What does this fold into?
Amino acid sequence: MSSVLGRYATPFITGLFLVSLISGIALFFHIGPGGFHGMHEWLSMVLILPFALHLWKNWRGFLNQFRRRPMGIALAASALAGALFLLPLGSGEAGGPPPLAFSHKILANSASELAPLLGTTPEDVVARLTAAGIPVTDASQPLVDAIQASGKPEMQAIAALARP
It folds into this structure.
């Protein structure tokens, strides 16, 4: 059984990585069918198993990589690249990619101000957010305040507002 898993670990890593690569590019450029989002998330989670099997099969060689400078450089560069998305932009503004910085600005508005942009009513905006676990006490309250008070991630609020 272990030899079968070992033989298939690398091919599955390759196949699932290609699926993740293609769906990730499509998501980045906002092209392709809506199924790319679920495909990317779920199959990236499935990728963990063959990756773990690949590590198990090649453990000794993997550990040897930590004795070489390129592994340290690659890990440091990767951590730095990830950290850049968490740093604030400018003076106290939200960080990350421009679409996220834009969404932070949008969520600084109230349900009353945002509703016309979404083609709906302030009551509908409040209802959507409340259904997502983000209670809005007043339609004139900045949505970012309600999101922070709920402890929910902004992406959960954006998803609730983006649904028809």
